[in-house]
């Protein structure tokens, strides 16, 4: 009698470079894929609307890929620990395999589940697959976490190089009668009333095959100009791989080695490749920080920033920012791009975040929550980490007095107004909701409270 292996997919919705999947196949028993939609476990943050849209389509693609190779994806909804145990019972499973995750609540769930299943006699194994370096392996000389990116990345690069990506299995032995699961449509991940996802459908094609095609297109066509044009939102020089990495349709090992191979040698191509790979390093640093500070989305990393005197919220200002109706063209263009496509160019993300926290003096947590709901690439680490970086409250934070002037940023990075013309052609005719110079002075005055609290 067989004792099937369960592969618990999480933010690794792919078949290539999937150590847990390959280990399950090597066990020599039928393999069942499982995805759990967990909105109920303590500390688990429910997905935002744009993320739910992406998840629906990525699960559709993963399910088809598994069926093509002989296996099956079971969908269940509920608290992950109890759901996994239920599927183990239904399948008569003898092993459970997963790739590790690094949020505090997620790690607690996984550790308790691993201990309990092993006590029941199951083989349970977890693997490193979502980061180039495990967060606990990159430490200062005294063994503490890093708080600044440059020495963090230097130390990481001094570790053994990231392993080569693993191949996708050609065949996956499945169960003749796998456990029953939910119908994906019943999860209602897609918006219907209203259907606001038209722009997402125009911009994106989720799934592993599309992710690998995008990686190849970027490396072949855009990597050479990445360093020179990456800050220009209309240049099309960015990789657009962030949602692919967020959902694990590509592993960072796959992206890393493809970038190293393509950018080898000297000249502009090598410089661009190095710059691009350092962005993978920034992603690693965000997860490193979350691992050691699990409350990154709700609490200031810099405790002294707790003294910052956020004024009473003006809801009309927050709404104007969310809708791209501030009268500040670059800000409005970015916020409208975000609403329409579920994405925003990274340079513009910094500008819009700075405007919210330092010109409107609105708590960074409200901006982080909006991005969490509207970005297809919002993950547990990078979203909060980058908001705290801009706000001045986080690790390696941009100095508080560095306040992005959106007018100067537009002059420098969108000098012909192509990006603004595409997304917010009417914004210049609007009266700005605040005076940039005056609000900059107010922000710096407010920061004096933080300095005095040190």
From TrEMBL:
<dbReference type="GO" id="GO:0006950">
    <property type="term" value="P:response to stress"/>
</dbReference>
<dbReference type="InterPro" id="IPR005101">
    <property type="entry name" value="Cryptochr/Photolyase_FAD-bd"/>
</dbReference>
<comment type="similarity">
    <text>Belongs to the DNA photolyase family.</text>
</comment>
<dbReference type="InterPro" id="IPR036155">
    <property type="entry name" value="Crypto/Photolyase_N_sf"/>
</dbReference>
<dbReference type="Pfam" id="PF00875">
    <property type="entry name" value="DNA_photolyase"/>
</dbReference>
<feature type="binding site">
    <location>
        <begin position="377"/>
        <end position="379"/>
    </location>
    <ligand>
        <name>FAD</name>
    </ligand>
</feature>
<feature type="site" description="Electron transfer via tryptophanyl radical">
    <location>
        <position position="364"/>
    </location>
</feature>
<dbReference type="Pfam" id="PF03441">
    <property type="entry name" value="FAD_binding_7"/>
</dbReference>
<feature type="site" description="Electron transfer via tryptophanyl radical">
    <location>
        <position position="387"/>
    </location>
</feature>
<dbReference type="GO" id="GO:0071949">
    <property type="term" value="F:FAD binding"/>
</dbReference>
<feature type="binding site">
    <location>
        <begin position="238"/>
        <end position="242"/>
    </location>
    <ligand>
        <name>FAD</name>
    </ligand>
</feature>
<dbReference type="GO" id="GO:0006139">
    <property type="term" value="P:nucleobase-containing compound metabolic process"/>
</dbReference>
<feature type="binding site">
    <location>
        <position position="276"/>
    </location>
    <ligand>
        <name>FAD</name>
    </ligand>
</feature>
<keyword id="KW-0285">Flavoprotein</keyword>
<dbReference type="InterPro" id="IPR002081">
    <property type="entry name" value="Cryptochrome/DNA_photolyase_1"/>
</dbReference>
<feature type="site" description="Electron transfer via tryptophanyl radical">
    <location>
        <position position="310"/>
    </location>
</feature>
<keyword id="KW-0157">Chromophore</keyword>
<dbReference type="InterPro" id="IPR036134">
    <property type="entry name" value="Crypto/Photolyase_FAD-like_sf"/>
</dbReference>
<feature type="domain" description="Photolyase/cryptochrome alpha/beta">
    <location>
        <begin position="3"/>
        <end position="132"/>
    </location>
</feature>
<keyword id="KW-0274">FAD</keyword>
<dbReference type="InterPro" id="IPR018394">
    <property type="entry name" value="DNA_photolyase_1_CS_C"/>
</dbReference>
<dbReference type="InterPro" id="IPR014729">
    <property type="entry name" value="Rossmann-like_a/b/a_fold"/>
</dbReference>
<dbReference type="InterPro" id="IPR006050">
    <property type="entry name" value="DNA_photolyase_N"/>
</dbReference>
<feature type="binding site">
    <location>
        <position position="226"/>
    </location>
    <ligand>
        <name>FAD</name>
    </ligand>
</feature>
<dbReference type="GO" id="GO:0003904">
    <property type="term" value="F:deoxyribodipyrimidine photo-lyase activity"/>
</dbReference>
<protein>
    <submittedName>
        <fullName>Deoxyribodipyrimidine photo-lyase</fullName>
    </submittedName>
</protein>
<dbReference type="GO" id="GO:0009416">
    <property type="term" value="P:response to light stimulus"/>
</dbReference>
<dbReference type="GO" id="GO:0003677">
    <property type="term" value="F:DNA binding"/>
</dbReference>
């Amino acid at each position: 009698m067989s004792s099937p292996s369960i592969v618990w997919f999480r933010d690794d919705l792919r078949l290539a470079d999937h150590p847990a999947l390959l280990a399950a196949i090597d066990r020599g028993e039928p393999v069942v894929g499982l995805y759990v939609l967990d909105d109920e476990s303590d500390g688990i943050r429910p997905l935002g609307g744009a993320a739910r849209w992406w998840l629906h389509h990525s699960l559709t693609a993963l399910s088809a890929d598994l069926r093509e190779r002989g296996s099956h994806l079971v969908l269940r909804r509920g608290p992950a620990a109890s759901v996994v145990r239920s599927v183990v019972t239904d399948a008569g499973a003898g092993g459970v395999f997963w790739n590790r995750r690094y949020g505090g609540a997620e790690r607690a769930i996984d550790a308790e589940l691993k201990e309990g299943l092993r006590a029941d006699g199951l083989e349970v194994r977890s693997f490193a697959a979502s980061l180039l370096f495990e967060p606990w392996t990159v430490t200062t000389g005294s063994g503490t976490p890093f708080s600044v990116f440059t020495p963090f990345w230097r130390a990481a690069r001094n570790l053994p190089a990231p392993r080569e990506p693993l191949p996708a299995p050609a065949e996956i032995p499945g169960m003749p009668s796998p456990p029953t699961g939910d119908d994906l449509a019943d999860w209602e991940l897609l918006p219907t009333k209203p259907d606001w996802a038209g722009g997402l459908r125009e911009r994106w094609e989720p799934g592993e095959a599309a992710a690998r095609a995008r990686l190849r297109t970027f490396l072949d066509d855009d990597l050479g100009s990445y360093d020179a044009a990456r800050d220009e939102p209309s240049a099309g020089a960015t990789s657009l791989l962030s949602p692919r990495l967020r959902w694990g349709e590509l592993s960072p090992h796959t992206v890393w080695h493809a970038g190293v191979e393509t950018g080898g040698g000297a000249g502009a191509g090598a410089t661009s490749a190095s710059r691009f790979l350092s962005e993978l390093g920034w992603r690693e640093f965000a997860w490193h920080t979350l691992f050691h500070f699990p409350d990154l989305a709700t609490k200031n990393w810099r405790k002294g920033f707790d003294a910052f005197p956020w004024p009473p919220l003006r809801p009309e200002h927050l709404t104007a920012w969310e809708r791209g109706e501030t009268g500040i063209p670059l800000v409005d263009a970015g916020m409208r791009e975000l609403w329409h496509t579920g994405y925003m160019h990274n340079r513009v993300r910094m500008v819009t975040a700075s405007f919210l926290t330092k010109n409107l003096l609105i708590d960074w947590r409200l901006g982080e929550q909006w991005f969490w709901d509207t970005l297809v690439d919002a993950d547990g680490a990078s979203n909060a980490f980058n908001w705290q970086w801009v706000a001045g409250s986080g690790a390696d934070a941009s100095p508080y007095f560095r306040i992005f002037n959106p007018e100067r940023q537009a002059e420098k990075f969108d000098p012909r107004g192509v990006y603004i013309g595409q997304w917010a052609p009417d914004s210049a005719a609007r009266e700005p909701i605040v005076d940039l110079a005056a609000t900059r002075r107010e922000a710096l005055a407010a920061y004096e409270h933080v300095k005095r609290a040190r």
